[in-house]
Amino acid sequence: MSEFQAYLQLGFDHITDSNGYDHILFIMALCTIYTLIDWKKVVILVTAFTIGHSITLALATLGLVSIKPEWVEFLIPITIVITACLNFFYKIPKSSFSQIEPSSKSRYPLALFFGLIHGLGFSNYLRALLGNEADIVNPLLGFNIGLELGQLIIVFIVLSIAFVLIEIVKIQRMSWINILSGIIVGMALSLILNNALFRSMTGMAEN
């Protein structure tokens, strides 16, 4: 296996790892208001997120940007809570084939901005893998593509479940959005609480 392939696999495994489910929750929160019929809108949204995390992933890995890991670990669940809470205010468009609805336009710059924060989280993991390697271009590219492949699979799964429940099972679309968003908010708040307790216990141990 080449170095590129190895880092591609690592990137894919990192985004799909159930033990580090914060990034999965964010992707789910982004996609909750959509179904398979909205795939074009989702591609634009995910591309905005991709651009954001690619920028900071590259900058942080190159050592041009540095933020304490504990701040990144705190901010990522915050991005999840905000994104999921916005879903509660979503207004379903009159037509599935209409243009981008006003109630979701703000999601695109938000996905880009929050992508910058998530890129810092990815970079902490990638820097640990790279160690003292001089050439980081291939690892960086492979890791980023691996992230995107895993991300697309998550998106496809969420949209497919939404399509089945809404179009076949006939669950009300807003019920699906509210229930899933509520679950995501609860899990993200749990992450925030766990991080706060961990920092508190670590601080007590140091003292």
In words, what does this structure look like?
Pfam families: HupE_UreJ_2. This is HupE/UreJ family protein. Keywords: Membrane, Transmembrane, Transmembrane helix. The chain crosses the membrane at residues 20-37, 42-65, 71-90, 110-129, 149-169, 176-198. There is one protein chain. This protein is mainly alpha-helical. It has one domain (3-200). Helix content is 77%, strand content 0%. It is globular, with a radius of gyration of 18 Å. The mean pLDDT is 85.
Total number of strands: 0
What does the largest sheet look like?
A: none
What's the pLDDT, averaged over the residues?
85
End-to-end separation in angstroms reads 47 Å
Task: Give me the Rg, rounded.
Answer: 18 Å
> How many helical elements?
8
Number of domains: 1
Principal-axis shape equals globular
Assembly context of the chains: single chain
Structural class from helices and strands? mainly alpha
Q: Please write the string of helix (H) and strand (E) elements.
A: HHHHHHHH
Helix percent band: over 70%
Strand content: under 5%
Short structural summary:
The protein has helices spanning 3-16, 22-31, 39-61, 69-87, 102-105, 107-130, 137-168, 173-206.
What's the helix and strand layout?
Elements: H1 3-16, H2 22-31, H3 39-61, H4 69-87, H5 102-105, H6 107-130, H7 137-168, H8 173-206
Helix pairs in contact: 1-7, 2-4, 2-7, 2-8, 3-6, 3-7, 4-6, 4-8
Give structural attributes:
single chain, 207 residues, mainly alpha, 8 helices
